Amino acid sequence: MGGDRQNTKAEILETTIPLFANRGYAGVSMRQIAQAVGIKAASLYHHFPDKGTLYIEALAQAFSKYAAFMSESFALQTRPEQRLHHLIHHLCIIVHEDDNFSKLMQREIMDGNEKRLELLADQVFSDFFQDMNELCLLLAPDHDPHLMSVSILGQIIYHFQITPIRPFLPGYSPEHDKAEIIAQHIMNLLTNGLNNSSE
Amino acid sequence: MGGDRQNTKAEILETTIPLFANRGYAGVSMRQIAQAVGIKAASLYHHFPDKGTLYIEALAQAFSKYAAFMSESFALQTRPEQRLHHLIHHLCIIVHEDDNFSKLMQREIMDGNEKRLELLADQVFSDFFQDMNELCLLLAPDHDPHLMSVSILGQIIYHFQITPIRPFLPGYSPEHDKAEIIAQHIMNLLTNGLNNSSE
DNA sequence: GTCTATAAAGGGATAGAC
DNA sequence: GTCTATCCCTTTATAGAC
Is strand D within 7 Å of residue A27 (CB)? Predict the structure, then answer.
């Protein structure tokens, strides 16, 4: 910001990701993108043929960054319970620190056509989700691993998804926004169910 | 559709709800709304002063409809386990049959300003969420009821949220899209945790 | 590689006839 | 209560100077 510009294209993408994440494809104009970058709208067309391509490339950049993060969780070869613990805490921290990824993903799931969704699934989630399924099969052999994976991911993502409205819901305290607290809660609920004993 | 039009304003709202749910506020134009209703764009301004008001009224209609549905779950005075069972199955069926509500809610959480979010929380969720908190306190006195409620809601909503991309995720089978299957899975996971025995 | 200028289309909204 | 016609602004995208 304010420095010299060695790689304008990369800078455009970095600037654009949070704009699309927060306001959606139709909610952001090329002029607004240009202004955020610090150039004129016409200059964007030197780097990208049209708005749609700019959006797709911003998506790809945002998703590739997080696909790398996610696969980290399974590099460690420890006990399944520890791997689940590590996975949940890791994901909570990632989603908590930067919500662009989950916002873009949500919008894609709502707006994206079949081709884009299939690409997203194959290139970003496929390996990660496969690993989760295997972990679920180890931890809960009597449950359907696909449903299990979705339930775990759903809890994590939803807890951060509702951050903007959470303060207005009954029983809220600022503790409920902290990644560590949420991670502990989810881990506890998963291992013990409602019939808790250890917390 | 094609019949006579006794109450155009109500018909506009009904037609508009799925448009805004699927494409978002910025993604739908007044001309497109008018075309879907079967009138000209100028006629919309006889019923609503501007696009923003039309959107708010469509939101209010969609939300009030489902706020009524949701409070049904707690009318029955039975054992807590049965109330949870009923709540989960009921919510799954509602969200499964009509996804406009959850899509609009998602978009509001992402796009809405603080005032709109506070209204949404107070007028739609407050009572329902309060009841959920009390139920959670009965079922799992050692868990934080607010986090517990969010975890339960999150699982339910997320399972249907990802419907468009689910077929591309590993381990998918068409069974995983059925409301009853999902409800059973969630109920089972909540009561037993990962260490399942009964399924 | 960025700019100014501009074309072409679509957006929200209003006036006034019927 | 709906229509046609229109205003004015914003949008995407291109052309061509620098």
Answer: no
pTM of the model: 0.94
The answer to whether strand C lies under 7 Å from the CB of residue B43 is no
Residues of B in contact with A25 (CB under 8 A): 27
- Domain containing A191: what range? 65-196
B80 chain-A contacts, CB cut-off 8 A:
none
Q: How far apart are CA B117 and CA B107, in angstroms?
A: 11
- Over the stretch B35-93, which tens digit does the pLDDT of each residue have? 999 999 999 999 999 999 999 999 999 998 877 777 776 666 789 999 999 999 999 99
Q: Are residues A91 and A187 in the same domain?
A: yes
Do A132 and A187 belong together in one domain? yes
The answer to whether A167 CB is within 7 Å of strand D is no
> In angstroms, rounded to a whole number, what is the distance separating the alpha carbons of residues A128 and A148?
14
Q: Which of B117, B81, B147, B107 is nearest to B20 (CA)?
A: B107
Write the CA distances from B66 to B73, B99, B104, B105, integer angstroms. Answer: 12, 11, 12, 11
